[in-house]
Amino acid sequence: MELRDRYGDFQARGAEVVALAVASREAVDGVWSAIGAPYPILADPEHRAAEAYGVYNRLGDGLAAPAVFVLTKDGILWSYVGQHSADRPSVDEILRHLP
Amino acid sequence: MASHRARWGVLFATGGLALLILLLMLTLLSQEATPLPTVSPPSPTPADPPVAQVGGEVIPWSAWVEAVLLDGVMSRLAGVSAPSPEETLDRLINEVLVLQAVPEARTPTPEEVEGRIAELEAAWGVSDEQVVQALAEAGLTRGALERTVARLLQVQEAQARIEASGTPVAEWLARERRRVRILTYPERMRGLPVVSPRPTVPVTVAPAVPDFTLERAGGGTLTLSEQLAQGPVVLVFFQRCG
Fold first, then answer.
1. At CB < 8 A and 24+ separation, what contacts does B142-145 make?
2. How many angstroms separate the CA of residue B55 from the nearest CA in chain A?
């Protein structure tokens, strides 16, 4: 878990990581305790957030496509939407787009 | 002394022209590109839907709207006709292609960005206040101009590296546009705010970040807007929970 191991880099930049999955609260509970994530993991069982960000069912699996959005209260600074399960940006790439 | 000043004037003008030429070049190049395949968007339409997808990267509606408005302001200041919204999207797609190919292209420093903006203002013969005013009339802030100029400088460097590898950028772009999966959603290219010279109501450029409140693992809920009030947020969607 590169994201977990490098969480401190995000904190040092004053940013919070918020993870979500189209899954039940019980399912994310299990993952959260299994990996010991230092950041919040949210359950989006009705995929409202995934739809609002345009990532729901992009891969045709009824789930959220792997995606990263860098946000401030003023807007979306950067986004990356994966084309397959393993397609996600590196932590360094995400950090480059933080304000 | 006078000739010294004149020389600076020429330098500034050249810098400004180079930027405009880059903008125009990216636009013109894309006119020769093959037509893009279009697809129906997944429903329902999200608050800030992508207007295009280039490889794994999306161009959100808000980014495109900002670019269209900014192109309008810059063209007006430069005294040239503005590109169409479709041409602006083509330019954004080209920029993404170039930056995806040369990810190591350096992000310019704030000083370099300010230097280039000063060159542009000199080339356009306007003050910074006039630029800020023109931006405000289009509902934009100076920050939007700074971001765009920073990105253009980065694109310029990436293009220079592509040229240095022996392929003209035009040829390279034509090849990439055939190779990379590019999708556009023309039916989403609407909702452009109408810009009047003296708006009485502030024009909304980017829609607000879609907000949500969701249950969090371990108990409790998290509201995105409350988190954003404390600083930037990196929102990470996981496909699978495990």
1. B144/B66, B144/B69, B144/B70, B144/B205, B145/B70, B145/B73, B145/B117
2. 8
> Which chain B residues are closer than 8 Å to A68 by Cβ?
234-237
Q: How far is A1 from chain B (nearest CA, A)?
A: 11
pLDDT (average), residues B100-123: 90
Identify the pLDDT of residue B202.
Answer: 37
Record: contact B217-A33, CB cut-off 8 A: yes
Q: Which chain B residues touch A98 with a CB distance below 8 Å?
A: 232, 234
Q: What is the mean pLDDT of residues B88-117?
A: 92
CA atoms within 13 A on the CB side of A48: 11
Number of domains present in the structure of chain A: 1
- Cis amide prior to B44 (ω within 30 degrees): yes
- Nearest chain A residue (CA) to B151: A97
Helix/strand/coil for A90:
coil
Residue A12 three-state SS? helix
CATH top class, domain B2-208: mainly alpha
CB-based contact B52:B184 (threshold 8 Å)? yes
A53 chain-B contacts, CB cut-off 8 A: 46, 48, 210, 235, 237
- What are the tens digits of pLDDT across the range B202-225? 333 334 588 899 999 999 999 999
Say which CATH number the domain at A23 has: 3.40.30.10
CA distance A74 to B135: 17
User: What is the predicted ipTM?
Assistant: 0.97
B23 pLDDT more than 80: no
Contact A14 B209 (CB under 8 A): no
Domain locations in chain B? 2-208
Q: Chain A: residue nearest B47 by CA?
A: A52
Minimal CA separation from A68 to chain B, in Å: 5
- Contact residues on chain A for B236, CB-CB shorter than 8 A: 3, 17-20, 67-68
How is residue B125 written in tokens? 């013969």
Find the domain containing A42 and state its range. Answer: 2-96
